[in-house]
Amino acid sequence: MVPLLVLWAGLEQHRANGTSLASIIPIAVVGALVYYFQAPQPQVDAGFAGLLVVGSVLGVYLGARAIDRIPETQLKAALAALLVVVGLKEALLP
Q1: pTM of whole model > 0.85?
Q2: Distances in whole angstroms, Cα of residue 88 to Cα of each of 23, 48, 67, 77, 82
Q3: Where are the domains of the chain?
Q4: Most distant CA pair in the chain: distance in Å?
Q5: What burial letters (b/e) apply to 30-49, b meaning 16+ CB within 10 Å?
Q6: pLDDT tens for each residue of 23-82
């Protein structure tokens, strides 16, 4: 989503990252509720999900604090490199 926000919507890299994170919240909540309530047995491991939430909140907080120190050009390059690595991994090791 971030590359599309930068390329098509014209947002600066830092704003695109924040916008993407903010848009994930309602999507994740609705998805988790559907998985929890729409099956005969909940398809959510609440204990493990809680651990993921704690780790994610800590990681996002530290990342959001650190991102202000990274110039936009370097942030774009890092994101591009990450996308290339993930794309190669998916292509070569499906």
Answers
A1: no
A2: 27, 30, 26, 16, 10
A3: 2-92
A4: 49
A5: eeeeeeeeeeeeeebeeeee
A6: 999 999 999 999 999 988 999 999 999 999 999 999 989 988 988 899 989 988 998 999
